[in-house]
């Protein structure tokens, strides 16, 4: 009966960087949530991978 959700960051590779064929799945730890990967647009792990050509997903285990 648990609810989980996925949040997607589509690949936004700039010209010269090829879109990757695989995806990245980020999963937070025990005492955090999906926002830990995208707290600040300047230092976002999720946006970094998307900008590098990866289709990036964050699983939210806390509902």
Residue stretches low in confidence (pLDDT < 50, at least 5 long) are: none
- Counted by DSSP, the helix tally is 1
Counting helices, strands and paired strands, the structural category is: alpha+beta
Shape: globular
Q: What fraction of residues sit in β-strands?
A: 25-35%
Distance between termini?
Answer: 11 Å
Summary keywords:
1 helix; 11% helix; 3-stranded mixed beta sheet; AB_hydrolase_fold; Alpha/beta hydrolase; alpha+beta; globular; single chain; 63 residues; 3 strands
Spell out the blueprint of helices and strands.
Blueprint: E1 5-9, E2 23-27, H1 45-51, E3 55-60
Parallel strand pairs: 2-3
Antiparallel strand pairs: 1-3
Commentary on this structure:
The chain has one domain (5-60). The chain is 11% helix and 25% strand. The chain has one helix spanning 45-51, and strands at residues 5-9, 23-27, 55-60. InterPro entries: AB_hydrolase_fold. This is Alpha/beta hydrolase.
Task: Quickly describe the structure.
The protein is 11% helix and 25% strand. It is of the alpha+beta class. The protein has one domain (5-60).
């Amino acid at each position: 009966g648990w609810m989980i959700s996925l949040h997607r960051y589509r690949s936004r590779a700039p010209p010269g960087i090829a879109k990757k064929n695989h995806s990245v799945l980020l999963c937070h730890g025990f005492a955090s949530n999906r926002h830990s990967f995208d707290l600040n647009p300047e230092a976002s792990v999720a946006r970094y991978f998307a900008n590098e050509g990866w289709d990036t997903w964050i699983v939210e285990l806390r509902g």
